[in-house]
């Protein structure tokens, strides 16, 4: 029971402060599931994120559905998904009249604008953590090599993320095992 | 109950869920295509309103869109239907794929895979972070963007505050603070 409540809180908080859609909630979810509740390690969270990025569909629900499942089975998955989806959806349906009135208000638009740099810093910090764990486990040379190659493939040659993730899995299976 | 309508709701959100890569926000054009062009449930303008209203609230945008549009087109059943179609297929694929990885966690091959994936995830997050930084600079200018970034770095990394505290404070500041137009 305690686990389910923790899961609810862990996904409810990113859901209500994560302005900027699902991807903005990535560092907020990491903060809850890795740092606050210790459901998983940074490395495990990285695996979840890698697969979530390689697969289609919204990011936030893939993270919630999977992490909930790993922590507390099917019920955990449902609780985490519920906490991610329902509060903001319910608010949208119930407060439609009010929100319609304010949808063009510069004050409301400002929220996303002001929250964005914070999310950027949290993501940047998470990026740093991934590079850090990677240097610890795979070493400097492999890390730098993988960073440069994947950055080139993703940004310069616009290779689909799913292929880059698949390619790195094959590389790891062959050269790092 | 209109079965054809429910079937169409399911198909449209299943398609957007399975074809949209890069998370919810990059899927919005696909939702637009289904809802406005293919099934004509809404006009362009109505869709724009729904998107704008969704953006006034926090949380994932894709589920807000699916749930709300499903509700408006097909009632409570439509809401559940659209959400299920958008969310469950990809969650199930996630769970089964990671299940395979975890089952073989001790094998050196899976450990090698795990090592190789961390820097790639780092790069993907870096790209995402960079796009947030670029948008921040466009909307706020360097000075304010860096100031806000520095404040969050200090409170999050050194003072160990929960990020929700700073974000909550900024939400309140955005709504009640007096300042000149920013965007």
Automatic annotation (TrEMBL), chain A:
One Pfam family matching this protein: Chromate_transp
Chain segments annotated as transmembrane: 7-29, 78-99, 111-131, 137-154
Main subcellular location of this protein, as a coarse class: membrane
Top-level division of the source organism's lineage: Bacteria
Keywords: Cell membrane, Membrane, Transmembrane, Transmembrane helix
GO molecular function: chromate transmembrane transporter activity
Gene Ontology CC, one term: plasma membrane
Subcellular location: Cell membrane
Protein's membrane topology: Multi-pass membrane protein
Family: Belongs to the chromate ion transporter (CHR) (TC 2.A.51) family.
The protein's name in its UniProt record: Chromate transporter
TrEMBL record, chain B:
Record's GO cellular component terms: plasma membrane
Key word Transit peptide present: no
Main localisation: membrane
Locations listed in the record: Cell membrane
Domain of life of the organism encoding this protein: Bacteria
Residue stretches spanning the membrane: 71-104, 116-133, 145-176
Entry GO MF terms: chromate transmembrane transporter activity
Signal peptide coordinates: none
Swiss-Prot/TrEMBL keywords: Cell membrane, Membrane, Transmembrane, Transmembrane helix
Protein name: Chromate transporter
Species in which this protein is naturally found: Piscibacillus halophilus
């Amino acid at each position: 029971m305690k686990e389910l409540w923790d899961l609810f809180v862990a996904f409810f908080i990113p859901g209500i402060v994560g302005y900027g859609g699902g991807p903005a909630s990535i560092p907020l979810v990491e903060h809850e599931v890795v740092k606050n509740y210790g459901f998983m390690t940074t490395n495990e969270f990285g695996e979840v994120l890698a697969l979530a990025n390689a697969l289609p569909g919204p990011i936030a629900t893939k993270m919630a559905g999977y992490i909930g499942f790993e922590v507390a089975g099917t019920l955990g998955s449902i609780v985490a998904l519920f906490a991610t989806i329902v509060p903001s959806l319910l608010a949208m349906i119930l407060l439609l009249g009010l929100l319609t009135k304010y949808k063009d208000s510069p004050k409301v638009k400002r929220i996303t604008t002001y929250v964005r740099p914070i999310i950027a810093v949290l993501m940047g910090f998470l990026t740093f953590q991934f590079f850090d764990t990677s240097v610890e486990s795979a070493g400097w040379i492999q890390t730098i090599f993988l960073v440069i190659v994947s950055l080139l493939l993703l940004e310069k040659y616009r290779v689909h993320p799913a292929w880059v993730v698949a390619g790195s899995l094959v590389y790891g299976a062959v050269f790092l095992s | 109950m209109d079965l054809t309508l429910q079937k169409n709701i399911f198909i449209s959100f299943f398609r957007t869920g399975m074809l949209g890569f890069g998370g919810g926000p990059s899927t919005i054009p696909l939702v637009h295509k289904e809802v406005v062009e293919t099934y004509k449930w809404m006009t362009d303008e109505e869709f724009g309103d729904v998107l704008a209203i969704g953006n006034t609230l926090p949380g994932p945008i894709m589920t807000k869109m699916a749930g709300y549009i499903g509700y408006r087109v097909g009632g409570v059943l439509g809401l559940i239907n659209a959400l299920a179609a958008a969310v469950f297929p990809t969650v199930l694929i996630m769970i089964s794929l990671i299940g395979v990885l975890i089952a073989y966690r001790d094998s050196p091959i899976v450990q090698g895979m795990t090592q190789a994936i961390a820097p790639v995830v780092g790069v993907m997050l870096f790209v995402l972070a960079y796009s947030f930084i670029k948008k921040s600079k466009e909307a706020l200018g360097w000075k304010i963007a860096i100031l806000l970034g520095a404040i969050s770095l200090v409170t999050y990394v050194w003072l160990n505050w929960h990020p929700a505290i700073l974000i909550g404070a900024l939400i309140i500041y955005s709504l009640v603070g007096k300042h000149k137009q920013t965007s």
